[in-house]
Amino acid sequence: MPCDNEVPCDDEVEVGDEDEVVDELERAAVNEVEHSNFTVEDTEKRLEVGEIVENEYIAYGLYCKYAREIGFSIFVCSYEGKKDTKRSKSKINVYQKPTIRCNCEAKLRIARRKDDVWRVTTFKKDHNHDMFAPYQRHLLRSARKLSDEQELLISTMVQSKIPVMRAYDMLENMAGGRENVGFTPRDAYDALYRAQKTKMKNEDASELVKHFMDKSNNEPFFYWNIEVDDDNRLMNFFFRDYRCMVDYEHFGDVVSFDTTYKTNKYELICAPFIGIDNHNQNVMFGLAFLSDETESSFEWLFRTFLESMGGKQPETIFTDQCQAMMNAIGTVFPKAYHRLCQWHINRNAVSHFGSLKENKKFKYLWNKCMSYCQTEEEFEETWQKMMDNYNLNGQKWFQRCTSCDIDGFLL
């Protein structure tokens, strides 16, 4: 298949790379390019190898508009890549979704030089498949976008009790047909949902902070802290009351930290600090909600917890096998003994057992390692016997368990 020349570059970006966050690109492209009068020939000239483009946003917008006019969808061509043959060879009789991938190499690549000028370095415009017909092109994913004005107009009509479909019909009449609207009714529903969700989060976050401030004014020992991102949006928060502080003072030598559960409404991770009192009952030392499970979030939380308890570190802390969590514990609680929770280990292990799941002798050795080894030497001997007998030394998950501090398994 013929293709244009490629030019070496300093800082390359493949327009539409799926690893990029493209929301900002799409917004800027819609505002600056969507309503331009460029023809296909004009766009091809602007995207020739060596041509200067204003920035990556304009390049993305031009390529989106070009793709719609020609009849394909981006990021890269939607026919890019090859069919996954591994699944088709599976012995399991399952439905496989049809694929349209046929290794199409059409793409646009730009680069920013050291002088901050963006140039086109690759523009492959030849496809090895048929293009979508004109009556289908407005349905292509990369061709469907709401401009800020369209989203505001629909939102205003919905607030005035006009149903979304009725509002869409009005836009369709104004545009002279559904193919000229630029998005589908489903896109309108999705945009309104995202806007409402963002508004709800912001309003509820403000109410949460107000609640914490009221609590701290009425309860002198109530402690709370929040973390926000660069846009001042709430990311993580932690709180504990006087009862938590007293319980930690008496029973905080051993702490269990669990991030198993996630809330549905806000997609936040519930992260309680739990202990055991003298009646063998669970007690709460504090509660956090996290937006992610990164090392930086855990470090912020553990430092916040430490500050709320007057700098007193736990002697032992039980967690799951999250590497980011392990790293943060080593940084913030260097004197604490870190142990892995048996419940989490067993839950994760089942998916790695494979055919050994039903092997009684293997399960005996595994259960002995988890619950019945009295010394470190006995654990090491039993673990190595299990690894050797069942040829597990090459299995990544078991290797990872082996690389962990052995003390972590002695629960």
Automatic annotation (TrEMBL):
Pfam families: FAR1, MULE. InterPro entries: FAR1_DNA_bnd_dom, MULE_transposase_dom. Residues 75-132 form the FAR1 domain. It comes from the Eukaryota. Residues 254-348 form the MULE transposase domain. This is Protein FAR1-RELATED SEQUENCE. The lineage of its organism: Eukaryota, Viridiplantae, Streptophyta, Embryophyta, Tracheophyta.
